[in-house]
Every structure is written in structure tokens, then in C-alpha cells.
Amino acid sequence: MKKKKINLRDLKPKEHQGEHSHDGGHNNNSTEVIFDFRTYLPSIFSLVMLIAGIAIDYFDAFPRFSGWIRILWYAIAYIPVGFPVVKEGWESIKKGDFFTEFFLMSIATIGAFVIGEYPEGVAVMLFYAVGELFQNAAVKRAKGNIKALLDVRPKEANVLRDGDYKSVSPEDVNIGEKIQIRVGEKIPLDGLLLSEKASLNTAALTGESKPDSILKEAKVYAGSINLESVIEVEVTNKFEDSSIARILDLVQNATARKSKTELFIRQFARIYTPIVVFLAIGVTFLPYFFVDDYVFRDWLYRALIFLVISCPCALVISIPLGYFGGLGAASKNGILFKGASFLDAMTKINTLVMDKTGTVTKGVFKIKEIKAIGWEESEFMKYLMALEEQSTHPIAKAIMEYKENGEDFEAKEVSEIAGKGLKGVVNGRAILVGNKALMIANAIDVPTETESIVESIVLVAIDNKFAGYVVIADELKEDAKETISALHKVGIKNIIMLSGDKDSITQQIAKELNVEKAKGGLLPEDKLNEVEILKKNPENKVAFIGDGINDAPVLAASNVGIAMGGLGSDVAIETADVIIQTDQPSKVVRAIKISRSTRKIVWQNIILAFGVKLVVLILGAGGLATMWEAVFADVGVALLAILNAVRLQRMSWN
């Protein structure tokens, strides 16, 4: 995905925008749809006039209510709801687009007036206007979750300049500058925490309601809310490169990537509509040659009914709305789909390939076991820590988290033996810390029990005697086991783990998680090769879950690439199709469920619309359906489809 420079002022929620020619809504150039009483006034006025007119007709309350007075009454009722549609149809014709729903509605209702069916003409337009109001309300509801995300845009930044904090636009802050965030304020830019600690609400970014407690020099992201005390942050990204700006851009453009179903229906509507128009002309004139008692007015009425029924409103409104509802529901759950096409693709996945480190494990080394031989554990660890303090290796950092304070143990003459470990002198004792090769090189016997340990192991010798070992392991994420079980339940039977870590460690993790197939010791190109082999079988639809950095080639090659913890990863945002904004693999299961629910609702709407329309079209052509049935087949079905699509906003996928 090409990276786009983002201007803060461009990131306004865009309600109900875009062209409309059978694409599900009026052509609105405004960026917001205002829902207030004035929006409903035209429909209310027309409804009152229509009911009053029908009542006068039925009860014959005013004998003079006939002729031009009756026509004028219904014309006045028609104009508030009909004029905008007729105007839109005319504008479309001027652009060369004849066969729009506006054209169909205009011809059908004006035709109804021509043959004297004034109440039906008003009713069709009135119901259509009410349908548009329902549609706009549904769109607003569907966009609510995404608008909430857009509302996390930071408005200002308090930046330290000339010894004082000044309020400026986040776009005007440079990398390396220091910003201050007060309690309750949003962090305006990505950066490193300079304060000792902070408690942040990242719900708008990750979907997680639990506050995130972080320590000095940890990364913080724009859009997070500071909860406890005033904090200071050093800016590491310009606003246009910040995580929140990239995510906003992603969400804004998500609906541009249409699903195949959505594209098919829109193409179908453009072919279907002119066919129906010519069929309506045929219904009007062809019976003249085949029917003895041909009455032009009767067959024109049937043709008008045919036209009203033929409007593909339910399809072109409810299908995009269904997909948009799915995208909104996913974002509410901390899952970002880069487009409706990936909602569809996710429903077809039957093979899931996953990375290990950072995906099902935390990617952070922790001490799993300490075995001291001939020494007290605390003293043994002090010797070890004194030496490891000189190293920057991740394993050394894990050892330094041990609870003992070893300030009275000082290491001297420390040197590194390449590929083996460290040696040095601590409080007058010779210390060796490293792997088995280091021990063998110094003629130190290592117990055979260490050979069965698959995790990373640090062997320790004191004064040329084996003193014990420490086992270091990467922790499983809390929901890792639950995720594999849930994936099996949703029908993903083929689950494969590929890792760059040692094969023995990979196999052990796979066994713990009940993953049947696993391979370790793989380079990024090896993982890519494994996925390509799987894809050669056309029955395999492969999703790959990785951290979005080393696994970028595989993310790009998979049918669906899913990035874990993508909030802070440039490569994840650029490469993956689906981004899990937290480090929870269980969200992948939720993404699959949301995708399936969305597709189910879309197909329900397609079947509903086609089924009802087909029945009423046949009845209308045969003279067995009136304009009222036509209204239901068009606007009524559209309303039912919209209400069905809105259900996505109320569903839960736990």
C-alpha cells in the first residue's frame, strides 16, 4: 500500500459521501449528514397531505375535491419528496447515466399522475424518501464505531520551546522535541516516555478497555489518553508518520476496496436496470398485438408497477452497508480490515500458518527455572548477575530481572568468548557463563540432565566447577491455548507453526498448544517457501499470522496476511491485510466470526431482495399486483435489508 502524506485537517469524518448512481445513496457533497427535525419535515408534510387527500377521497367530505383541485393537492404533496429525486434523475441524465433509480422512480410516479393514480404516485415517492431517511440513519449507526476512532485525532500538542510549553498543532512538532500531556489529554504524537511511569487508556486504538501501565523509555502512541499524572514524552515520529494517522488513513480508505460480491451486484444492477426499462416498454405496448380487449391505461399501469419493483435499491444500499457494518464492528473490536474484500477472503480461510515469537508467545525472555548445585540460589544468582550485567543480550536482561540485589558482587576482567558466553572474575572467583561449548572448552563436566532441556539454557561454572544452570524461556500469551482450541471450533483444521527459533523449542510450544504441524530454525525465505507450497494446492486458502516485521514477505504472499500488535509496526500497516491492534491471537478467531456474520447477512439480503422482487414482478406483469405491492417490493424490502444489516452493530462474537 502506497504511503500517503496525511494532513490533520483532512481527517474529518465523511458521512454518506460519494457519487450515487445505483451505489446506495444520494449524491451528497457535504461531509456530514445532519439528523435534525428539519430533515424529516418534507416527509412529514407529504405524509399529512397524502393521508388528508385519501381521507377526503374516501369519505367524499368535499364534493368539489375533484379535477384540477385534486390534482393540485396531490402535486403539492408530491413536490417535497419527489422534486429532489426528479432533479437527481435529470442531473444523472445530463451526465449520460440514464438508468438510475432516480430515473425509474421519476418515470413511475409521473406516469401514475398521468393515468390519474395520484395517491399511488405520492405514496411511492414518500416511501422512497422515508427509506432514504432510514438508510442515512443506518449508515450513521454503521459509521459510529469508525467515527469514534476518527475522533481520537489529537487537536493540539504542548511542546517545550524556549523553556516554556506552547500549544501548537501536532503537525508542527518535530522529531526529538519534548511534549507534555496533562491528565485526561490525548497523546498527540508517537514517542518515548520520559517520565518514570504512566497509565494510559488505549481503548480507541486497541479495543482494550483495561488501562496500560508503562515505564520510562517505553513507546507511547498518539491517541492514547493519559490517566494519572502529568507526563513528558520525546517525539519519535512526525504526525503524518504516527500510528494513529496511518490507522485513520487505513480506516478512511477501507471501503474503497470492494468485495467481489459488492462489485458483482453493482455491475449486475447497471445491466439489469436498462433490461427492466425495455421490458416495461414491452409490457405497455406488446399486448396490443396479442390481447383482444387491450386497454392502454391498464397496461401502462402494469408497466409502471414493473418499473417501481425493478429498482435495485435494496441490493445497492444494503450490501455496501452490510460490509461497512462489518468493518465498523471489527474496528470496535480492535481489528482493522484494509477493505471489504478481506472480510470476504477471511470467510474462505481453511489453513492458518502462524509465527511463534510475538504471535503465540510474548517475545520476552523470562527465567523459567534455576538449578544451583552446591550453592544457595541467591548467592549463585549474584555471581551470575554480576557477569551478565556487562552484557546487552536479551537473555542477560532476563537474568537481571531476578529479585536479588547483587550490588556487593563486582565483576572484573570480563571478556566475551564469541559464540560461547562470558568469563570473568567476581569477588575473587573465576566465573564462566554460557553454553555447553564453553564448558567443554574449559574441561568442565556438565550433568546429562541439561541435554533434555529444549529451552535456552545458561550454564554456570565457579572456580572451574559446574555450579548450576538457569533455564530461560519465552512465555506463552495468556490466550494462546484458547485461540488454537477456538480455531478448531470455527472449522480451521489445518494449523501450522513456522518459527525462526530452534526446532526443539518450536516443537515443544506446538505440543503445548496442540498444533499438529510445526517447523523451527527457518529463515524468512524458508517461511515464504512453506506458504508457497501450501498455496500450490488450490483447495488451500492460507492466512498467515506474524509480527509484521520479519514476516513481511509471507504476509504479502498469503491469501490473507494478519499482523499481530500492528499498532507500532510500519511494516504491519503497509503489508498486512488485517491488523490485530493488540497482541491477542484470540482476536483472529473474532475476525473470522465477524467476517462470516457479515457475509451471512449480505447473502440474506441478496436472497430477500431477489426473492420478493421476482414474485411481485410476475404478479405486476400479470395485473395481480398494485402500486402498493410495488412500493413494498422496492422500499419495503430495502428497509428490511437495512435493518438486517444494522444487526451487525449489535452482535457480539465472544
Automatic annotation (TrEMBL):
Reaction catalyzed: Zn(2+)(in) + ATP + H2O = Zn(2+)(out) + ADP + phosphate + H(+)
**Enzyme class, UniProt record, top EC level:** translocase
Query: Pfam families, per this entry?
Result: E1-E2_ATPase (PF00122), Hydrolase (PF00702)
Name the chain's protein. Answer: P-type Zn(2+) transporter
User: Would I find Ion transport among this entry's keywords?
Assistant: no
Please give the InterPro entries that the UniProt record associates with this protein.
ATPase_P-typ_cyto_dom_N (IPR023299), ATPase_P-typ_P_site (IPR018303), ATPase_P-typ_TM_dom_sf (IPR023298), ATPase_P-typ_transduc_dom_A_sf (IPR008250), ATPase_P-type_domA (IPR059000), Cation_Transport_ATPase_IB (IPR051014), HAD-like_sf (IPR036412), HAD_sf (IPR023214)
Which residues lie within the region annotated Disordered? Answer: 1-27
Q: Where is the composition biased (Basic and acidic residues)?
A: 7-25
Which keywords fit this entry according to its UniProt record?
A: ATP-binding, Cell membrane, Membrane, Metal-binding, Nucleotide-binding, Translocase, Transmembrane, Transmembrane helix
Localization, UniProt:
Cell membrane; Membrane
EC code(s) of this entry:
7.2.2.12
List GO terms (cellular component aspect): plasma membrane
Mark the transmembrane ranges.
40-59, 65-86, 98-116, 122-139, 271-291, 303-324, 601-621, 627-646
Q: Which parts of the sequence belong to the P-type ATPase A domain?
A: 153-252
From which domain of life does this come?
A: Bacteria
Q: Would you identify the family this protein belongs to, as annotated? A: Belongs to the cation transport ATPase (P-type) (TC 3.A.3) family. Type IB subfamily.
For this chain, one GO molecular function annotation is:
cadmium ion transmembrane transporter activity
